[in-house]
């Protein structure tokens, strides 16, 4: 493939924007609050994570852009992700006390629930790095009742033999007290942790008792008197050291697929992914160009990088087998935007094959949806699409999804979009996702408005509608962009395409904590 300067420039510009948005999440509550936090002798959420994970290991951050476009700070006042601690992949959830005292707003809740879901589905331990003002009080109506799920998830994790560890660095009061309360292992930092159901002023009001923070919920008290803490740490670094020792003693064993001991780097240079995505998503691109830049290359025990299946049938969808960081995977990638009956049936067959041989699936999106029109309807496009959606819905092997380009209409569903429970879903900065394209949506609205006017015997004001059309197109375009969708929590992150191989490699290693077992029972396939 030749270098496409304009595609590359457009992608690099989007990556630059992405970095600027990530920088906002990294900045937390901003300079003033970070400086105040440090002046108190405290580490930031990200520094705590950095000290916790194994030196030189990667941290796969999740949903850093949640809250983008909302009234809340980007990042949901917490950092979540998967890090390797003493060789064990753990979900790490760290409150960011520099953002509104680490209090939890509706975005924080969404983000923490998704993190807990990822830990549950991939069967990994959880480490909470706690310092939070609890519920964001002005939005309590949106979080109080659903918020109970956080404590429920912790105790269910424990019952499922997924240990939970809580390191308390500061405030963890009221409902927040149940984070350490429900955890299997609790570490509290001396003279910093505050874990009580009600602080001194509330106790005074409720019972008239005069008391202080330390007697009510200090680290010494909980470690020596109440027994709510298992370890008393002298400072933050000591607490992190103890947390690492706890993980080292979990006797953790991965029970899933074992990767090939060696693997080759991709056949094609991952840097070429920058050239691949056309600036206009209506132009097709060959997904094999992406696949060969992401999957393992040829090696003595991997004779072909990508074994395409059924290449002559339903050629708008490319499917086949490959390895990624030594893990066997099946891939489904859109080749020419639209999905027709052949593609849908090919996908349904391929997903069953992956389940038959217990192999995870990777979905690479660039689809405008299922084909419309009389011939296709008469040819059964609905029932064939339904076959594909049935296969995706009932498949039990882990699914990974990357939205490279377009992801419109029911194509988003058939290709295992967010509603279909992918273990992980990442988006490229070039992606666009909506019920349909902005021009098509505005055009449909115009036709509907025209018909409605005519049915009432009114004259349709086409000139007047032009303004509405432009406004709708602009709005839909904005709402289909990756930052907007990431802000709503519809992905696990927007990534630089060049990082796709590494990100997917981590995901495959994480899901290998549990056995991969396919399913041969699907719903009724309407044939
Ligand atoms: N909801 C909404 N905003 C909160 C908040 C909460 N629960 N807790 C803190 N904030 C805000 C503060 O209003 C302040 O905002 P501002 O800087 O825009 O004025 C900012 O977060 C920092 O709070 P501050 O009190 O200055 O920080 P601190 O580090 O000295 O103390 C806490 C942090 C969390 C110990 C303290 O703010 C506190 O006790 N909050 C209430 C805790 C609580 O009772 N929560 C209810 C649990 S259900």
UniProtKB/TrEMBL annotation:
Q: Where is the CoA carboxyltransferase C-terminal domain?
A: 269-527
Q: Which domain of life is it from?
A: Bacteria
Q: Which GO terms describe its molecular function?
A: ligase activity; transferase activity
**Source organism per UniProt:** Nocardioides terrae
Alphabetized SUPFAM superfamilies for the sequence:
ClpP/crotonase
Pfam name, any one: Carboxyl_trans
What name has this protein been given in UniProt? Acetyl-CoA carboxylase, carboxyltransferase component
Record key words, sorted: Transferase
- Domain CoA carboxyltransferase N-terminal span(s) in chain numbering: 11-262
* InterPro entries, sorted: AcCoA_carboxyl_beta, ClpP/crotonase-like_dom_sf, COA_CT_C, COA_CT_N, MCCB/AccD1-like
